[in-house]
Amino acid sequence: MGERKQPEIAPGAFALDRAGLFDLADIAIDAARRAGADYVDIRLGETRREFLRAREDRLEDVGESADAGFGLRVLRDGCWGFYGASTFSRAAILTGVETALANARAVKPIQPREIILETLPGVEARWETPFGIDPFEVSVADKADFLLSVNAAARDAGVDYCLSTFLAAREERLFASANGARIAQTRTRVEPRFTITAVDKASGRFATRDSLAPARGAGWDYAAGCGLVEEARRGAEEARRKLRAKPVSAGVRDVVIAPSNLFLTIHETVGHATELDRSLGWEANFAGTTFVKPAMLGGLRFGSELMTIQADRAQEGGLATIGYDDDGAPASSANFAIIEKGVFENFQMALGQAHLIGLPRSNGCAYADSPRAFPIQRMPNISLAPNPERCSLDDLISGVDDGLYIIGAGSWSIDQQRDNFQFGGQLFFEIKNGALGEMVQGAAYQGRTLDFWRGLDGLGDASTNELHGVFTCGKAEPMQLAPVSHGAPVARFRGVRILDTNAAA
Amino acid sequence: MFLSEQDIEPIARRLLARSRADACEIAIRGGEEQNLRFAHGGATTNRSLADISLRVSSHVGRRVGSVEIASLDEGAALAALERSERIARALPPDQDYVAPLGPQNYEDSRRYGEATGTLGMEALAARAGEAIAQGMAAGVDTFGCAASGRRFLAMVNSAGLFAYDRRAEVEISVTARNRADSWSGWAGENAFDADLLNAGAVARRACEKAAHDETPRDLEPGRYTVIFEPDATAELARWLLRALDARATDEGRNFFSGKRGGEPLFDAKLTLSSDPADPLAPDSSIGFEGVAQRARPWIDSGVVASFYRDRAYARKTGAEAVAHPRGFHLRGGETPIEDMIRTTKRGLLVTRLWYANMLDPRSLLLTGLTRDGNFVIENGKVVAPARNMRFNASLAEVFARIEALGPSRRAWSAFKDAGAAAAPAMLVEGFPFASRSAGI
How far apart are CA B181 and CA B212, in angstroms? Predict the structure, then answer.
């Protein structure tokens, strides 16, 4: 205890006192085991965030935060007990051990089936997100200038309103378990965004255009270099075009969907549908269950042959890219196909779930959104594999007589079993006789998950692939927010129901 | 970590005394809480939590920099203070700068009780146990979450503001699913006073809704007479309240833009208000930015009465700063839900809504789905479960078509959410469903 060799991390990337925190972890694990815990793990660390918001030519809000603490989890007599606090001290740790064990005793009367855990390897390791420029080392003045230049570009292109934000987050985490795991990780991510609004005062109409530039596991160099200023200029022109665009004609049409929209459809219809905890009913009271059942493993035809959906924690820039998950499972275990050539092959799992469907161990899909939060099953990066054969956007469009090309994520909604969905978008273009036509507005597409994916009949190659993602996917009670990326090529779907939201009411 | 007004004051005063900025604001938040979840009648995850945060905002030459930390440790607090000043100095001056808010007179908001705030995990397990027992008795499976705790917020600044608010809450929500996993029901309640929460009764409501073995009916999408239970009404009202944004209205970006004041936009039965003294759903007495919340009508007999606006926009437009309420009350009527059902020839009873999202703020077009307890009403009786459906409905139309309202009651809003809500059951004509969902 205390003399264990600690994994080394480059100075700067991990600002906390690692040795001191590992000592606290040792105290917690020893005390919990002596008091009868069968398993114990602990996450300690801090999430640092920086946030800027600019509205038109005004910087509305600038700040940074550091949210620190620990979360101690014990298994005793087949029951979980958990305690989280924002204090790093020996006294708080000992209170945590006592409370977590008391919680395990308190829930025993409502624990008819013991919780059973597999043993994950007790590795000593470190990992950090590779990035060019540390976003927390760039002056706030430079970031403010960046957002104000985004808004100025929109204004100069003729719109009245532009709201831009920049968010950087860094999670420093130590994980230690009774299995001997000692893992130190630092993940860094950035999210540059804008929403442009063009108003036509004469008609009283307005149109918005949200940025398409994705959030990434990356540094300031990515945010500054992702073309947001140029996109604001283009976006302002597109918002003005949307004002004049005719309403989409509703009906069942073929659609070609850009990665900037399809990523969210993958997230909602495949990502959430294949979470084992949902399938087991553990999220039934809030986030929901899923139409996908364990008996469907290896048998359910989820989509067409073109559909292969791969999980990973290794993609460069992925928001869920990391070395080990929050149960201490290695990233390599999260490298699996969820859907292989249209057939459902694997659930996403966290610790203590695999044996319930006859599998040996977790596949590395746990995440806790704060060091004080209970780790639950969350998505790794989940991506639609591009077509190995050459196929461009034009190739896909040329195969559509009467359809719609959809770009960017808009309003979204899906039922709690991940069947009936409705997604909007940012930009819509008619496709007529195999060619891109004029811009239309007010479209949303509505579908049923399996029908939709079985209608996938054209897939772009790797040259059309883009990695998009969300910073804040919500799940669990109390709600935890997880970052996750989804890669996708451009793709074509047959027979999709298009709504005109101008007329839908 | 739960702190009293007396705990906070010296900490805040000491820190303010060390500020070298033109002005300084301090916000301290924290609490103690626990929750436990259960599924298939057995415990899954649980947590006890003690947390604290300190936010320091320094004002320097019409610029504001903020730093938040998870500690009240003096060294860390002073470092945060220094860093917030450094951030402020690095920013361009703000033409719409507003100085810190001066002293406010806050009304009392009765949301705190020691006994409720200090309930332990055993108390939650006992309540979850009652819910599970109800499920076993009804022959259905139960899933849910019980939570309790107490939290405080303090805001202190160099302009003389001292605000302190605290609340204690307990909640339970239960989803019941029949044994064939082909139908479900939900009920949830939260209360500021543990004595008012009857976990067994909440669970019984969920179980009764779920205990149907017949195949749910598949209805054709289209317009239906719908009776929304109070939790569903509250969800629709929450979206309407969110749309009452003064700035978006002025800028031509929402439903209210260009509408004349005093014009009735909704049914005269619609009155939506917030009040720190509301007996069912007391609002927090401290609004966003520390602005004191008063009893306020938002929509009065179908006419918009208030919009919310932040302090900077209020100053710019010469209007009053009005904080978005954290709790609200949609005033009830006198038609019991049983009478609404009895007078409905053909319609739907909706328990709960799910994944609502605004499709078009100009027409208040909202999409979403029904969930966990959707039933067909025929000739004055609830006759069968009805498969869930998606709606695309304009809130302007929905709230213009109120046929009847029941007595309002405390409606669901999760512990961590925006605050208490009270709403009645609501009968609406011609509510539009767009498509079917197989999701149960």
Answer: 10
Note whether A205 contacts B362, CB cutoff 8 Å.
yes
Q: Please tell me the pTM assigned to this model.
A: 0.96
Percent of chain A at pLDDT exceeding 90: 95
Q: Which of B96, B367, B370, B417 to mutate to test the interface with A (most CBs of A within 10 A)?
A: B367
Token digits of residue B231: 């939790």
Reported ipTM: the value is 0.96
Residue B200 makes CB contacts below 8 A (sequence gap 6+) with B130, B131, B133, B134
Question: What are the tens digits of pLDDT across the range B261-311?
Answer: 899 999 999 999 999 999 999 999 999 999 999 999 999 999 999 999 999
Quick one: chain B helix, strand, coil %, rounded to 5?
Answer: 25, 40, 35
Average pLDDT value for chain B: 96
Residue contact B437–A84, C-beta within 8 A:
no
Is B140 part of the contact surface with chain A (CB cutoff 8 Å)?
A: no
> At the fourth CATH level, which superfamily is domain A18-244?
PmbA/TldD superfamily (3.30.2290.10)
Q: Do B435 and A497 touch (CB under 8 A)?
A: yes
Q: Tell me the residue type at A486.
A: H
Q: How far is A108 from chain B (nearest CA, A)?
A: 8
> Which residues in chain A touch residue B186, judged by CB atoms under 8 angstroms apart?
285
Q: What is the pLDDT of residues B176-198, one digit of tens each?
A: 999 999 999 999 999 999 999 99
Q: Pick the closest to residue A260 from A406, A429, A454 (CA basis).
A: A406
Quick one: pLDDT at residue B416? 62
Q: Give the start-to-end residue ranges of the domains of chain B.
A: 5-210, 216-440
Q: Which CATH number fits domain B5-210: 3.30.2290.10, 3.40.50.620, 3.60.60.10, 3.30.365.10?
A: 3.30.2290.10
| pLDDT tens digits, B123-173 | 999 999 999 999 999 999 999 999 999 999 999 999 999 999 999 999 999
Report CA B24 to chain centroid distance, whole Å: 30
What is the spatial distance between Cα A503 and Cα A216, in angstroms, rounded to a whole number? 36
Q: Tokens at residue A469, please?
A: 């993602």
Predicted confidence (pLDDT) per residue in B370-394, tens digit: 999 999 999 999 999 999 999 999 9
Helix (H, G, I), strand (E, B) or coil at A327: coil
Quick one: closest CA in A to B393, which residue?
A505
What's the confidence (pLDDT) of residue A14?
Answer: 62
Please indicate whether, in this complex, the C-beta atoms of A85 and B49 are within 8 angstroms of each other.
yes
Task: Determine phi and psi for A425, rounding to 5 degrees.
Answer: -170, 180
* Domain boundaries of chain A, sorted by first residue: 18-244, 247-500
Question: In the predicted model, what is the mean pLDDT of residues A27-47?
Answer: 98
Inter-residue contact A153 to A145 (CB < 8 Å): no
Q: What is the mean pLDDT of residues B234-247?
A: 97
Cβ distance A112 to B57 less than 8 Å, yes or no, reads: no
Residue A1: count other Cβ atoms within 10 Å of its Cβ: 10
List all residues 6 or more positions away from B5 whose beta carbon is below 8 Å from its beta carbon: B154, B164
Contact B179, B139 (CB under 8 A): yes
Angle between helices B5-18 and B74-90 (to 10 degrees): 50
Instruction: Say if the Cβ atoms of B49 and A84 lie within 8 Å.
Output: yes
| Token reading at B228 | 């929304």
Angle at A78 between CA A72 and CA A84, to 5 degrees: 15
- Residue A184 distance to chain B (closest CA, Å): 21
**Cis peptide, bond prior to residue A294, ω within 30 of zero:** no
Question: Using an 8 Å Cβ cutoff, are B341 and B374 in contact?
Answer: no
Averaged pLDDT, A72-76: 98
Extended strands (E) in B8-109? 23-39, 42-59, 64-69
